[in-house]
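ok trying this again, last paste got cut off
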Amino acid sequence: ANVPTIKVTDIYDFGKRVVSDSKSGSYTIIGEPGDGYDYKYDFADNSSLITIELATREYFSNQRLSYLYKINDQEWVELSNGNNQIILNNPVPDNYTIIVKAKNEVQESAPRTILLTVHAAWYATNIAKVCYVILALLIIAAFVLQMQSKYRTKQKVNEHINREKINEAKINFF
């Protein structure tokens, strides 16, 4: 019996078929395969529905063929017979390692690895969070400096008033 060979045949971003130069935000969706993965996809944070379509290179007549996948080392999920789509609905920004394989009644295909990254919005990146902390510290520092300045001014005014009272008392005494 032939061992099925699995591949990703299509990928969709909210129902729209992704082609080689398709963009999601500022990211080119389809990337080059790399070390440890066969497919690489990059999506912006607003990609709310990502569909990965699978197929085998061989046609298996009268044999039950099903697809399995697991995401980030979770348990294997077997798609129902006839279903060849993995659907990610509202994925949170993160790196997803998706391992897929096909199996017929006798054998399983070699697994294929997909690296799928959903990038955080610019305002939710670590750099932005550091900037928020710095901004908050600057605001707190400005507030503290302003309060110190007001306190010093109030002290100077009180000292001046007290000096005036002392001078007035001296004048009234003589």
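PB: full thing came through this time. Residues 126-173 form the longest helix (48 residues).
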